[in-house]
């Protein structure tokens, strides 16, 4: 055989068959869908991160509100204790004295608050199912949400 007749198969006229073109199109479409999935995954992670931030901010606001309420209650008790002896000495002898009110226990959550708690728990479950929250984090956050009322 002479060198002029031995040509590598890729030299010469390129042949593109329908199956080759279809295969190339399928590869391009598949790679495009993978890129779209990566974009969707990144968007989902961003959404979950934002939800986490919102939950943390809400929890901090609730903690701050509880602290304010406890401080207000403590001040009321101090004022009542300071005013208590003066009021009892001013009362007429034999007049009925009002019994001190027992400290209020936490009232059961109202319907809207209960729905908010349930929604937070659902979202937390979704975060756990998606793998963004570990079992330990899930239990801690669930307890915080339930106790926040």
Instruction: Kindly state the percentage of residues in helix.
Output: over 70%
Please give the radius of gyration in angstroms.
Answer: 35 Å
How would you describe the oligomerization state of the chains in this entry? single chain
Could you tell me the strand content as a percent range? under 5%
Number of strands: 0
What class would the helix/strand composition place it in? mainly alpha
- Point out poorly predicted stretches: none
Q: What is the count of DSSP helices, taking H or I runs of 4+ residues?
A: 3
Overall mean pLDDT stands at 75
Order of helices and strands: HHH
How far apart are the first and last residues' alpha carbons, in Å? Answer: 90 Å
Instruction: Characterize the overall form.
Output: rod-shaped
Strand count, sense and closure of the main sheet?
Answer: none
Write the layout of secondary structure elements.
Blueprint: H1 18-90, H2 111-129, H3 135-148
Helix pairs in contact: 2-3
Word description of this protein:
With 149 residues, the protein is mostly helical. The protein contains three helices and no strands. Helix 2 (111-129) runs antiparallel to helix 3. The radius of gyration is 35 Å and the shape is rod-shaped. The mean pLDDT is 75.
Descriptors for this entry?
149 residues, mainly alpha, 3 helices
What's the short story on this structure?
By secondary structure, the protein is an all-alpha fold. Helix content is 71%, strand content 0%.
